[in-house]
């Protein structure tokens, strides 16, 4: 069994994007610091790569970057840092450095949630284990478990309307039994929203006993009509009721009473106490819930513009986070009451941001790296299926300007949807559920208008940032795969994708496509373009390509997209063309440095170039990524610069 220096766990409310972005960020940070790590992910499909007891025992530290509950009792005695999943993405380097070197990171101690929260608020807040963070994590745990019920039930209910809006009503002329059956199954599943949300909030606070009490309390909340507000209050009530019972019954020795506590005392006393309290607070909770719903319903008729503005801002503020989810939960609650108007605006506001990124890269492709462009194109698909998280990397790149741009487009889409009284009877699915929308083409048009406006704003901002950072500075970072400068972002999902690609390509050794005759020393050139011309001619002379003009054209086109100048005097130009016969690597040493846009602003005197045939399955990116990885090692760069002969260069690259 492999042993890991560090172990980690990541998770987010939806279990789609943030979970795996945090995993990738932590793995890359650990790699940079030369330590091994295994990350357990808590995604929508369950727990992947679960940590074994042997792996836990062998680790020196634990990082939990999660918005959902992760069983921390497994890590008793281990140095532990617990933070929201967003920090696992944006502060991965800091987290790995702290868990390795910060003596103030304390060992995790077992105890009740209340005891943990109290100790955390006193001395452990630096580790991220604050009381408010535990409140947030428990809420997100409830939301993440609730969402599949909402989606499954809502979609089945929506399908039941295919035969007509009243097809499930036995009293209607549109009635048919299959629609009635679908609607009954779907509505029953939707009704589980309140007890499931309540149960898993409680489960995050006090484990299985809390979940039992939470289900019972949630059913009381549902029966008394308190809605999801009652579910949230009931979840915390149930969870901390069990915590209180754990404290009161602590004098009873576990060896004799552990089973009795878990099976009898906690559930019976917990359900009685929490259930009684929920019963008596249900009336004011119901009035509050009904009042809020009526207020929102009223705004659809009296102030659809204000409502659309609010919903647009909420949905585009954190792209699937708690603010976005608040709007979504309100929509699902109203949907269960037969209000199909509110969810239409919420869905429009959630679909617009990822589509906007696709339009942005179409409007101004030169302002984005190739990986960002790919992510933008993929977001057309993600947005069309109501997955807002695809916009996160673009928002993180320049949040102060990009997030308001997303809000504008989402608000416009929501406002137009509410003004035209569009109905969407399903809580998820995006454009897949268009047959169920009363004005499908109009709804899509409003979403596209909002997306295009946001996309234009994003493209304009990206263009200005690209000009500002045309020559990289300390304020920016350099994309080693594309040779383009990008502004320093917290963590870009597209960058993570690029790094992931490099991890999968260990077998693409650049030394395999380098020969002695493809290395040239003392090359005379005074400009970048002269170097590229030399490379094109050199390729034809060595029988690697047929047409030097076309190869040169591809070199120049690549440089126009973004400079391939790296740092430490090295550039990695590359060309892909039908006239190139086979993949090859060329290395030039110049007799004097030439000016080239580089990360450190210094001229180039060493060129590593790649020639790639047109019918290439992506191997050029794999060779490039492995070479770029080599260039991050100072010992390799130093040896390459000091090499005086072709043989030394060939041996150096092949040995790597």
From TrEMBL:
Its EC number is 2.7.1.69. SUPFAM superfamilies: Phoshotransferase/anion transport protein, PTS system IIB component-like. It is found in: Cell inner membrane. One of its GO terms (molecular function) is transferase activity. Its main location: membrane. The keyword Signal does not apply. The chain crosses the membrane at residues 146-165, 177-200, 212-243, 263-281, 302-320, 340-363, 400-420, 440-461. It is a multi-pass membrane protein. CDD domains: PTS_IIA_fru, PTS_IIB_fructose. Residues 6-101 form the PTS EIIB type-2 domain. Pfam families: PTS_EIIA_2 (PF00359), PTS_IIB (PF02302). Keywords: Cell membrane, Membrane, Phosphoprotein, Phosphotransferase system, Sugar transport, Transferase, Transmembrane, Transmembrane helix, Transport. The keyword Transport applies. Residues 135-471 form the PTS EIIC type-2 domain. It comes from the Bacteria. This is PTS system, galactose-inducible IIB component. It comes from Pediococcus damnosus.
